[in-house]
Amino acid sequence: MKKKLINNNRVVLSLVGLVLGFMIAFSFRLTQDETQGHRISDRQWEQTLSLRNELIEQEEKNSSLQKQLDKQQDVISGQEKDLAKEAQVFFNLAEDTEKYRMYLGKVKVQGKGVAVKLSDGEYDPKEENINNYLVHEHHVFKVVNELYIAGASAVAINGQRLAHNSYIICDGPVITVDGYQHPAPFEITAIGDAKVLDSALNITGGVKDQLVNDRIIFSLEKQDDITMEPIPEKK
User: Fold this and answer.
1) Total of domains in the chain
2) For the stretch 103-134, what's the b/e string if a residue is b when 16 or more beta carbons lie within 10 angstroms of its beta carbon?
3) Domain holding 193: CATH number?
4) Pairwise CA distance, residues 104 & 133, whole Å
5) What protein family does this chain belong to (predicted)?
């Protein structure tokens, strides 16, 4: 009986040793795997850290380059604004020059406007002074001045274009414009806003009423196409 108990104890001890050995081996293997796993994680972390540092460096470079680009764009934008201002100045100068050339009669002009016709009044045998119903230079002056005031860009009398220094002289039944004589009726053409020019001449108590009171026959027609050639250069 004692011998059997001893054998049973040996078996139990053997099983305990076997289990203990298995546990020790398993623990060692697990510890080794964990250690190896940690080593792999460390390498990966180092690689990740290196890539992260490179990314940060590239982002800093990109940020620096972007700042430089923004600065250059600001400079270019300022230069473009300056050029735009200069271009506008040159455009305004060119436009003003063209207007002056037009007012001086140096260039051909074409556009809409009005044609005003001034004719001598009807003959009255009872009228002793014939000049009382003839068109005189002051009648023509009134029309011309009112047209310019109303914004006419160019004016002509019987097709002869007026300059800034033109003169008109009355010589009996004819008028002389810059040395050229013109008989009645006198057609005064003007390029500009036809509606404005028409209103300026037909205002109550204005030029038309004054001429009619002087027994001048007054007529006005709006025209869509008026052309005036440049004033010939004097030799």
Assistant:
1) 1
2) bebebebebebbbbebbbbeeeeeeeeeeebb
3) 3.30.70.1880
4) 33
5) Belongs to the UPF0749 family.
